[in-house]
Amino acid sequence: MFGWTQGLSLLPIFLVSWSSATFIVSYLIAIYRNDVDVIFPYISDTSATPPESCIFGLMTFISASAGTATVYARFKYVEKMNEGTNVVASRVNTAALVLGLISCLGMVVVATFQETAVIVAHDVGALLFFVPGILYVILQVVISFQAYPISSSVVICRARLGFAIIATLAFFPSILPHKSHVFSARKDGDYPFHIASAVCEWIVSFSFIFFFYTYIDEFKVSKGPQGHMTQACLPRGKTCFLHVFLAVF
Fold it and tell me: From 38, 159, 187, 230, which residue has the greatest number of CB atoms within 10 Å?
């Protein structure tokens, strides 16, 4: 059996791959239709008009579902790993679960309410996605260092810390006031700020998404209280996406 098919390791792989494809596909369609400029448009701009808005909405809903499953599976993993060790505060694990679920809800709101339709709802959804998402990543960094070396390796801990730092630093420039369409912004003096903000938005999104790649090894197998490898704490059985969602929910 391939290593990446063990346990629920396919879940974070699917989440990262599908979410990345969601942004890239809507971007390519928007470029092909000349709806946005090729130079770093906002992610929301690439999904503001049909048909890319429809495709983006559908793919984002699938990403949010996979994200919900991954967040919950991670919660159960930490909960199981914590039995008999109590190295991770249960309140921290629960808070991370709530923040992760809120972030997934924000994804759905962003995809449902395009910025050209209901901009207030769209902006609220973006904040629900980014702010709780970054806080979720930070709490997972805390959990990882608390669980070291029982569960997380030092490499994984540092990788998660790196993603958390990048996402946090890039978030603040990404919320700079901006105009929605790059074509009109080019004619204004705030175009450099527009580009900086858009670049940071892409950085925040992909650093948050690729953070879930660090779950792959832990979703395969787990370490017991004495550091010995045991069967995965997560639901057992054939690893297919139908089983994953049935096992998690």
Answer: 159
> Scanning the structure block, which residue is given the tokens 């690893």?
239
Residuewise pLDDT in 10s, the chain (249 residues) = 444 456 678 899 999 999 999 999 998 998 888 878 777 788 888 877 888 888 888 999 999 999 999 999 999 999 888 887 778 888 999 999 999 999 999 999 988 887 767 778 888 888 999 999 999 999 999 999 988 888 778 899 999 999 999 999 998 887 765 555 545 555 556 667 778 888 888 999 999 899 999 998 888 754 444 444 344 444 443 434 444 444 444
